[in-house]
Amino acid sequence: MPVDDAARLTALYDAHAGSVWRYVVHLTGDRTGADDVVQETLLRAWRSPRILEQDPATMRSWLFTVARHLVIDEVRSAHHRHEQAVSELPERARSDDTDALFEAILIEEALATLTPEHRAVIVTAYYGGRSIAQAAVELGVPEGTVKSRLHYALRALRLAFQERGVTQ
Fold it and tell me: Could you say which DSSP state residue 127 is in?
């Protein structure tokens, strides 16, 4: 920061910081927050060279207006409206397993509507994580039969879910 800028900023602070700070404290009642508002107000004045060239009375009213707008903006902000100080932290939310339980019951009911052969191929391939070849070996049927049963089992399962009100 050049010497001239530093001197202007120091002069601005010395001349107006105290009165702006008192004004903000009067508006908000928050002494700590007033420091931030004063800093931002003086920074905006320093960034506006035409303001610094005005007479002191006009500059002071401009500073008060800027400070008031900053206070209003803070009050209107979502941060200010939704933040509530509490003496204790709330308990952590625990996950609710109700949805998972209902889904498990729904799947169990839908699987029960399938033929034993279709149910076996679905359970082996999808829930067991087996490939077509592994499922064929485990179930003792050809790979083509596993593919065919999977196709028809999935169609029947989709229909069973639709009958229960489940849509994609």
Answer: I
